[in-house]
Amino acid sequence: MENIKITNAQRAEILTQALPYIQNYYNKIVVVKYGGNAMINEDLKQQVMEDVVLLTLIGAKVVLVHGGGPEITDMLGKIGKQSVFVDGLRVTDKETVEVVQMVLAGKVNKSLVNLIEMKGGKAMGISGIDGHLIEAEVKDERLGYVGRITKVNVEPITDLLEKGYIPVVSTVGCDMQGNVYNVNADTAASQIAGAIGAESLLSMTDISGIMRDCKDPTSLIPLIDIADAHKLMGEGVISGGMIPKVLCCIDAIEHGVKKVTIMDGRIPHAILLETLTDEGAGTMVVARKRSRRELL
């Protein structure tokens, strides 16, 4: 494909169109749930970090919440341990939760912090254990140390934001007895976003968003409200693994987040497209349906 030549006048026009969005996000908190192919593809990973840094430079306060399922599976394989899943959740025994903590809070978290710093950002990596950020309990005895969040203590995040850092949060939780839990990243991101009063939550996935026909990307539904979401679940349009993602969106909105977007992390610079353009980059979920401009 030929490179498209953009004139200086066109660049100025693009920036002008982005102005109301830049104004809207100034001094507001944006939580990015980072996962899927955007964590594995090196080019996309670089672009995500560039987007995160750019948002902070225009005045947004970005919190990056990440998982790391493929890296956990890879490490378990290296020690000869097979991954077992029940209802889409990893069965996590004592040995597995130690690997989860090592991979998420160590390898993945610190590599993301390093990338952000390389792009000119100022980041600090923390886990849900730090400051008891994510308190959890056993979700299902069959799953072992998979956690259900009981409380989010936001002080570690708000303290870092006040000091100008981008908090990079790995989703392991803990309880008062010292147990460590593997916590679903979508759930953690939605509850963190609600607890800190985020303007928006961006949930990066490997699909275009919510589609009327899952095999047809052109059937993307760009905007729904909570009533639409329940209707689409009842009709079977939202099904399978998309149901828990949408329920997380609804939970975040009911806890005060203004808008949540299930977005396509495979698109280059998807975060900027979603936050700074009329078109967006996925399906936005809101409490009550209005146009994207009216949501500013």
CATH topology: Carbamate kinase
- C-alpha geometry: globular
Q: What's the total helix number?
A: 9
- CATH top-level class: Alpha Beta
Largest sheet: 8 strands, mixed
Strands ordered across the widest β-sheet: 5-8-2-1-11-13-14-12
How many beta strands in the DSSP annotation? 14
Query: What count of domains describes the coordinates?
Result: 1
What is the average per-residue confidence, as pLDDT, rounded to a whole number? 90
Portion of residues within helices:
25-40%
Q: How does the helix and strand content classify structurally? A: alpha/beta
Question: Element order, helices and strands?
Answer: HEHEHEEHEEEHEEEHEEHHEHE
Which strand-content bin applies to the residues?
15-25%
What is the assigned CATH homologous superfamily? Acetylglutamate kinase-like
Distance between the termini: 35 Å
Provide the fold topology.
Blueprint: H1 8-25, E1 29-34, H2 42-57, E2 61-66, H3 69-78, E3 85-86, E4 89-90, H4 94-118, E5 123-127, E6 134-138, E7 147-152, H5 155-162, E8 166-170, E9 172-174, E10 180-182, H6 185-195, E11 200-205, E12 223-225, H7 226-235, H8 242-254, E13 259-264, H9 270-276, E14 282-286
Note down, in words, how this protein is organized.
With 296 residues, the chain is α/β, with parallel strands linked by helices. The chain has helices at residues 8-25, 42-57, 69-78, 94-118, 155-162, 185-195, 226-235, 242-254, 270-276; strands at 29-34, 61-66, 85-86, 89-90, 123-127, 134-138, 147-152, 166-170, 172-174, 180-182, 200-205, 223-225, 259-264, 282-286. It is globular. The model has no long low-confidence stretch (mean pLDDT 90). The chain is built from nine helices and 14 strands. Helix 3 (69-78) packs across helix 4 and helix 6 packs parallel to helix 8. Strand 9 (172-174) and strand 10 (180-182) form a beta hairpin. The chain has a single domain (22-286), classed as Carbamate kinase (3-Layer(aba) Sandwich), CATH 3.40.1160.10. Strands 5-8-2-1-11-13-14-12 form an eight-stranded mixed β-sheet, sandwiched between helices. It has a two-stranded antiparallel sheet with strand order 3-4. It starts with 7 loop residues before the first helix and ends in a 10-residue tail after the last strand.
